[in-house]
Every structure is written in C-alpha cells, then in structure tokens.
C-alpha cells in the first residue's frame, strides 16, 4: 500500500488557511460590530475550539497565535499596531492565549477519550462473547452485539433493565455469596443459566469483573458470558454414551459394580449388579437384600466379611454363592477397594463378578481329572495285583498254619491253654494285617473328587509302600526310607498323595529292571525346604532321564514303555499342582533319576 507523504502537509495547509480565513472573517465582523477586546476574544475562543476539533496541538497553537495577533492589531490600544499601551490589554491577551490553549487541549483530550471508548465498544461488538456492564444495582449500562445475538434483546431494550430480572438468571450458589466473593477478590467465575428473549434457556460460562474507582469504590460489573449449551449437551451425550458402553461391557463380562458408603449406610449397584442379584433396578439396594440372596451356608461368612470391612476399612476380595429364588446357584467373586476422602468418610468401590460358568467348568474339570486319576489308580493296582495278592495270602497262610497248630494243641492228651492262646493271638494279628491290606486297596479304588484332610506325609508314604513290598521283592529292589520328623503339617487328599507316591515308586522299580552289576536301590526321602514346604524325593538307580525326553515326561500319553499308558506322571502333576505344589525330575549323581514334589504347608484359610 502506497503512503501519500504529502497528504498531511496538504491537509494542514488547507486547514490553517481556512482557519485563518475564518478568524479573519470573525475579526472583520467583530470590528464592524464594534466589539471590544474581551468580547472579540470570546468569539475567537469559540472559533478556535471548533477548529481544534479538527487537528492537533500545533494547529491549536497556530490558530491561537493568529487570533492573538488579530486581537492585538485590531482591538488593543494603539489600534492597527502590534504595540500595547495598557497593561490590562496585555493581561487580557495573555489570558486569552492561556485559555485558548487550555480549552483546545481539554477538548482534544475529551475527543480522544470518546474515540477510545468508541473503539473499545466497536471491539467488544466484534467479539462473539456476550459482554455487558451493569452498575452496582445490576442495572445494565452497556450491552454488546454478542449479547444482542445470544439473548435476543437489542441494546436499547436491555439498557436500563436489571440484568438478573431480564435474563432470569439461575445461580449455582446464592447471589449474596457470589457478590461477597466479587467484592472481596474483584472477580467471580462460574456457570449460570439464563433465559433468552424467546424463553429458551442457555447455560453460560460467566466471568464477572469488578470495576473500581481509584479510591477502590466499586463502580460497575463487567460480565462476559460464553454460551456453553452445546458444549454441555455434547458432554452429557458423551457421559450417556460412556455409561451405556460401561453398562454393555458389564453385561458382557457379567460383572457389576457397586459403591458402599459405610459412614452413611448408602449402597449403589450398577444395572448389571441388579441383574446378578435378580432384583428390580428401581429398588434401593441394601446389605440385607444381598444377604437374602446369599446361599444359607455362606451367609455367616459373608456377614463376617462385611462386618470386618466396615470395621477395618480394608480392601476385600472373596467368593461366595447365591441361592436364587428359582433354586439355581450362582458363584460370585466380590472385590472391593476402600476409598477415603478428606472428611474421613469410609467408602468402598468394587466389582461383583458372576463366575458361575468358570466355577462349573472348574468343577467339571476336577471331576474329569478325578475320573482319570481313578482309572490310572485302578491300572496301577492291576499292575500290583500279584504283589497285593501275595500281601494278603501271606497272613492268610499264617492264619491257616496257626489254626492247624491250634487244633493240634486242642487234640493233645494234655491240652495246653497257653499254646492255644498264643496261636489264636497270632491268628488275630495276621487277620488284622490282611484286613489292613484289603482296606488300603479298597481306599485306592475310591472314586470321587478330592477330599482334603490334615495328614502326616510320612504316614502316607508308609501306607503306600506297604502295598508294594512284594513288588520290590520280586524285582529284587531294596527300599530305603529317609523320612524327616520335621515335616510341616499338610492339608491334602490322602488317596491322591498315595497315588503319586505309588506311581513314582513303580516307575522307579521299572526303571531299574534292566539294571545289572549295581545294587537296585530305591530311596524315598522327605524333608522340609527353606520355604517351609514339604518335599518328597524318590531316587532310583536306573538309567536316569534322557535329555531328549526330559521336557516331555509330565505330558499326557508320553511313554517309552511297550505297554505304558503315559498318564502316570501327568496325573501326578495335576494332583500336586491342585494342592498348590510342584513336581519335577532330574538326574542325581551319575545316572540316578530323582522325581520330587513339594507341597505348601497348611494354609489357615484353606483348612477352615
Ligand atoms: P508310563 O509309566 O505309563 O510310561 P508315566 O507317565 O508314569 O507313564 O511315565 C512316563 C515316562 O517317563 C516313562 O515311559 C519313562 O520313559 C519316563 N520315566 C518315568 N519314571 C522314570 C524313572 N524313574 N526313570 C527314568 N524314566 C522314567
């Protein structure tokens, strides 16, 4: 854009020329009218004030000096000369000059202020925000175009009205409190609800700023409002969407949520929680409602958990069952986290998960595993049948022998009651021995899922090896037991552990079948490890574990035996893992294979 450098001098020349002509005209008129120095000076002042509206200080000075010259020449004694005879004329001329300059400066200042205000108002009109000013009685003194557009009232309609009445303002807190903050801090911000001219409500983000005099006296309030209605609507829609997604996710995962304000005794359930408990979503949830659905066998436990959480304020995590009105059973997993706020109010937020399907699947799996374990136990017993038969036949043969001896003593011409009693006592001992073997075999044929009891692992080992005595003899294997008296107490299924031990012992015996030139020794050792776990190790002197098969030993159906099933070690693993332990194999010393398993000590909760 080209700037015309001569425009300003040209304007000044024209202004000064026309100003001087105007002042000359005024001089001629006053002279003709015979006005004196003071009256003419007054007329000049009017002309100079009008001229000063058109330009800067320089122009005012130029016009004032020209007017002063005219006054001096035409109206001060001696006339038509620039000399001054009387001091009063000199004084009048000086007063004229000072007044002229002062008034023109003042006029220009007022003009500049007016311009600045107009510019501010123009800028406020350009802004999209609504801006209005109200005095301390809330009467509107300024109303910008943004306010006209938002509220529908024109400036002339709004000015002079009380803003809160015109806009039917709804405040978030009492107006007195807001005004108190405004006067104390000089500003206030918050959300207001205003009513437009057409009766529609708008939510605005409002900012009030207090205008004060230099002495700090409150003069007016500048209120800037931004229309937040759309933003709020979008926020609400988003919140509704999120709530909907959450509800759908909860329905999909069969997980409900809850809130529990212990201090106030208030409970909140999500829709899915209502569905899990099968209550109408309109009801107000209570702890008693949850207990009413709890399985009668679990009520005492759940009540204890709730009381404990309320008293200690600690997180909780437990499972229990529900007995639904139709007779069906649900398994629930409840997890809650304690939340403490500033006012020390005890609250919990948590989730209720319907884990019925998972628990049923687990039960089915346990049943299938138990079935499989039963079958493999029967298979192992089949393998041991000769040995077991021998274990039973031995005491039976002894009973027969003692019975015959008894008869012989009774048929003796001089019967000896002492000998007969000794024979009968031996028969009783042998009878009990045979019965005990039969009892143990019957135990092993038991069918059903795990039944955990407190037991002594060394006893379990002794029971198991009593069934393989003949097996050991027939394979020329010597058994050594190194049982530690320091074992931790265990909570486990006796039959399952016997099965594991029998399986490891039979495998050990079979592994030494091809052994020649070395003693066939099987060592069963028990110990307590550093973590307090009970460990059982079965050492044999066979050919050891081949590196290429080491990682497949515990896999189902892995076998290297011609008639093997490959299920023994796999079942051992599932039994031990179901007891919270682990099983592993390694080669010890030169080639000896060691199969070991460890079991955790009794867990107080477990045994309850
Ligand atoms: P099965 O006895 O029917 O083969 P197992 O699961 O009991 O099934 O054993 C799987 C395989 O592990 C065996 O076939 C054998 O190769 C290996 N194994 C088991 N015990 C021993 C052992 N004490 N020494 C060497 N290998 C063994």
From TrEMBL:
All copies of domain PAS, residue ranges: 116-182
Gene3D superfamilies with a match to the protein in the record: 1.10.287.130, 2.10.70.100, 6.10.250.2580, Backbone structure of the membrane domain of e. Coli histidine kinase receptor kdpd, Histidine kinase-like ATPase, C-terminal domain, PAS domain
SMART domains reported for this sequence: HATPase_c (SM00387), HisKA (SM00388), PAC (SM00086), PAS (SM00091)
Keywords: ATP-binding, Kinase, Membrane, Nucleotide-binding, Phosphoprotein, Transferase, Transmembrane, Transmembrane helix, Two-component regulatory system
Keyword Nucleotide-binding: yes
Domain PAC: 186-240, 316-367
Major subcellular location class: membrane
Bilayer disposition of the protein: Multi-pass membrane protein
Catalytic activity: ATP + protein L-histidine = ADP + protein N-phospho-L-histidine
TM spans (from-to): 12-35, 41-74, 86-107
Subcellular location: Membrane
Record domain Histidine kinase: where: 387-603
Xref: InterPro entries: HATPase_C_sf, HATPase_dom, His_kinase_dom, HisK_dim/P_dom, HisK_dim/P_sf, KdpD_sf, KdpD_TM, PAC
The protein's Enzyme Commission number: 2.7.13.3
Name the UniProt record assigns to this protein: histidine kinase
Organism: Paraburkholderia metrosideri
């Amino acid at each position: 854009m080209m700037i015309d450098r001569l425009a300003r001098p040209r304007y000044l020349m024209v202004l000064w020329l026309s100003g001087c002509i105007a002042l000359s005209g005024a001089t001629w008129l006053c002279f003709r009218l015979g006005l004196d120095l003071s009256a003419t000076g007054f007329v000049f002042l009017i002309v100079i004030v009008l001229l000063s509206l058109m330009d800067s200080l320089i122009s005012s000075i130029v016009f004032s000096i020209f007017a002063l010259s005219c006054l001096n020449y035409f109206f001060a004694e001696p006339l038509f000369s620039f000399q001054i005879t009387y001091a009063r004329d000199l004084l009048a001329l000086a007063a004229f000059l000072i007044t002229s300059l002062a008034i023109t400066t003042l006029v220009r200042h007022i003009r500049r202020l007016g311009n600045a205000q107009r510019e501010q108002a123009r800028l406020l009109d350009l802004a999209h925000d609504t801006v209005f000013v109200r005095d301390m009685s809330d009467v509107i003194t300024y109303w910008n175009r943004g306010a006209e557009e938002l509220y529908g009232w024109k400036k002339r309609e709004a000015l002079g009205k009380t803003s809160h009445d015109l806009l039917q303002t709804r405040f978030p807190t009492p107006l007195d409190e807001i005004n108190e903050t405004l006067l104390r801090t000089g500003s206030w911000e918050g959300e207001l609800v205003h009513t437009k001219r057409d009766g529609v409500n708008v939510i605005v983000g409002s900012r009030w700023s207090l205008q004060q005099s230099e002495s700090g006296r409150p003069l007016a309030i500048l209120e800037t409002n931004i229309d937040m209605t759309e933003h709020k609507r979008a926020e609400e829609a988003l919140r509704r969407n999120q709530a909907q997604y959450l509800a759908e996710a909860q329905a999909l995962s069969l997980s409900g949520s809850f809130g529990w304000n212990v201090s106030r005794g208030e409970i909140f359930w999500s829709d899915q929680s209502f569905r899990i408990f099968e209550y109408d979503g309109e009801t107000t949830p209570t702890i008693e409602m949850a207990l009413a659905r709890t399985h009668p066998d679990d009520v005492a436990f759940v009540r204890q958990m709730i009381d404990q959480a309320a008293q200690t304020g600690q997180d909780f995590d437990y499972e229990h069952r529900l007995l639904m009105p139709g007779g069906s059973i649900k398994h629930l997993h409840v997890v809650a986290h304690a939340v403490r706020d500033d006012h020390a109010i005890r609250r919990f937020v948590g989730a209720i998960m319907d884990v019925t399907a998972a628990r049923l699947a687990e039960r089915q799996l346990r049943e299938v595993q138990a079935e499989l374990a039963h079958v493999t136990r029967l298979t192992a017993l089949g393998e041991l049948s000769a040995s077991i038969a021998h274990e039973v036949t031995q005491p039976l043969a002894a009973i027969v022998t003692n019975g015959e001896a008894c008869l012989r003593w009774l048929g003796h011409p001089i019967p000896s009651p002492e000998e007969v009693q000794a024979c009968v006592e031996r028969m009783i001992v042998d009878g009990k021995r045979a019965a005990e073997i039969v009892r143990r075999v019957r135990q092993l044929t038991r069918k059903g899922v795990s039944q955990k009891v407190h037991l002594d692992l060394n006893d379990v080992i002794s029971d198991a090896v009593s069934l393989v005595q003949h097996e050991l003899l027939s394979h020329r294997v010597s058994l050594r037991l190194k049982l530690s008296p320091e074992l931790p107490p265990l909570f486990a299924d006796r039959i399952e552990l016997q099965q594991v031990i029998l399986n490891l012992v039979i495998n050990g015996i079979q592994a030494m079948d091809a052994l020649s030139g070395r003693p066939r020794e099987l060592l069963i050792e028990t110990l307590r490890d550093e973590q307090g776990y009970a460990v059982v190790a079965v050492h044999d002197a066979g050919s050891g574990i081949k590196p290429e098969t080491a990682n497949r030993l515990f896999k189902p159906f892995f076998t290297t035996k011609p008639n093997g099933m490959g299920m023994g070690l796999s079942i051992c693993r599932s039994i031990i893992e179901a007891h919270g332990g682990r099983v592993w194999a390694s080669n010890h010393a030169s080639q000896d294979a060691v199969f070991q398993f460890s079991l955790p000590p009794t867990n107080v909760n477990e045994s309850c």
